Amino acid sequence: MPDVENQVEPGAEAESVPSRRRALGGLLRWESLLVVLLLVSIAYGASVSPYFLEWTNLFFIGSNVGEIAIIALPLTLVIITGEIDLSVASMLGLTGLFMAELFQHGWPIWPAIIAAVVLGGILGAFNGFLITGLGLPSLAVTIGTLTLYRGIAQGILPSDTISGFPQGLASIGVVPIPHTHISYSVAIFLGLAVIFGVVLHATPLGRAIFAIGANKEAAFYSGIRVKRIKFWLFVLSGMICGLAGVLWTLRFASARYDSGIGIELFVVTVVLLGGVSIFGGRGTIVGVVLSVAIVGSLQMALTQINVSADKQNIVTGVLLLISVIVPNGGEALRRVRDRLRRRPLPRAG
After folding, report:
1. How much is the CA Rg of the chain, to the nearest whole Å?
2. 3-state secondary structure string, 125-136?
3. Residue 325's pLDDT is what?
4. Residues 255, 245: Cα–Cα separation, whole Å
5. Is the C-alpha dihedral spanning 164, 167, 168, 169 positive or negative?
6. I need a labelling partner for 15 at 20 to 30 A (CA). Which of 120, 141, 160, 272 fits?
7. Secondary structure, 3-state, 222-276
């Protein structure tokens, strides 16, 4: 992978340093705000329920958002490149159902799990081909495949459910890791978050991902293989959705065509609330981890005071709007201020 920093012109590099510093400073301020929001959400939960701060509640918070958090990691990389994948929930549903169908037809459970992850990669590759190979917009493509993949799942299993998975695996969604209060899905999320964080923030590939999101034409002329990187990010998104589909199916001990329906809204909210710019080129894994904790805490607090799922969706929508308006509104105000400062003063007389 070519080193982006060594291939830009000296003038462009010097000019980009202040902008990078401003972006980094903005992210640090946003992450500081996320820490405050997390503390506020914990305080709110403790005020509305005496059980909120109990250790056993930590497991339920994690199990509720585990699969969403896992899917948010590859989607973070996709959005940083300036693209989006709205088919993640449909890939989760289809891959989980595929795993269950194979198991029902006599496959051992572990080969069926591997096949589900592979299918996720194939579904992601189809998205990536349409977007990078044919040059179609990712928003339109993944809205289309959102419906397509869900329709395929419904065609496979219109109304029935598949259950009867091995007890040892089926229990991973309802019991914590032994001697802890951490769910298996959260443990997987934290392990993947470390890997994604290192790749994104400490490798040439990560620098290339940021460069693509900041300016894909400049990244291309710097020697970065823009289409190839985007394609494999969509493949990765599909594979991680396959893993999440397996975890979701085992947590509920059943597979249905509508598994995970609608959770793409929560996944996008988590990513954008974490400070990832919807326009690409900016974001951190730390911010996404903090965002997962905030959304999980609020969701559990609202559940414990019997707030319906429909009303919880209102809170999710508000968080999504805040995560889009506040960072980009601040950036717009800074640009207006900079233009006013550069405007020449009127001559006297």
Report:
1. 22
2. HHHHHHHHHCCC
3. 79
4. 9
5. positive
6. 272
7. CCCCHHHHHHHHHHHHHHHHHHHHHHHHHHHCCECCCCCCCCHHHHHHHHHHCCC
What are the angstrom distances between the C-alpha of 98 and each of 110, 119, 143, 164? 13, 8, 21, 15
What's the topology of domain 10-36+67-293? Answer: ABC transporter involved in vitamin B12 uptake, BtuC (1.10.3470)
CA distance 178 to 271: 30
**Distance, C-alpha 142 to centroid of its chain:** 15
Provide the residue ranges of all domains of the chain, joining segments of one domain with +: 10-36+67-293
Asked whether 277 and 327 are in contact (CB, 8 A), the reply is yes
CA distance readout (Å), 340 to 16, 241, 335, 345, 349: 21, 46, 9, 10, 21
Rounded to whole angstroms, the Cα distance separating 80 from 57 reads 33
Residue 284 CA to residue 270 CA, distance in Å, equals: 12
pLDDT recorded at residue 172: 81
Tell me, what's the pLDDT at 311? 80
What residue type is 224 in one-letter code? Answer: I
Residues forming beta bridges with residue 6, ordered by sequence position? none
Give SS3 for 160: coil
Provide the 3-class DSSP secondary structure of residue 193: helix
Structure tokens given for 292: 């997962």
Q: What parts of the chain have a pLDDT lower than 70? A: 1-28, 327-349
Transcribe 48-93 into DSSP letters: H-TTTTSHHHHHHHHHHHHHHHHHHHHHHHHHHTT-----HHHHHH
Provide the CB-side half-sphere exposure for 201 (13 A, CA).
Answer: 14
Six-digit token pair at 235? 């493949």
CB 198 within 8 A of CB 284: no
Q: Which helix (H) or strand (E) holds 216?
A: helix 216-221
Q: Please state, in angstroms and rounded to a whole number, the distance separating the CA atoms of residues 128 and 108.
A: 30
Residue of 65, 145, 90 whose CA lies nearest to 256? 90
- Tokens 């998205």, located at residue: 127
Distance set, CA 153 to CA 22, 38, 43, 95, 96 (Å): 46, 37, 41, 9, 10
**pLDDT recorded at residue 11:** 40
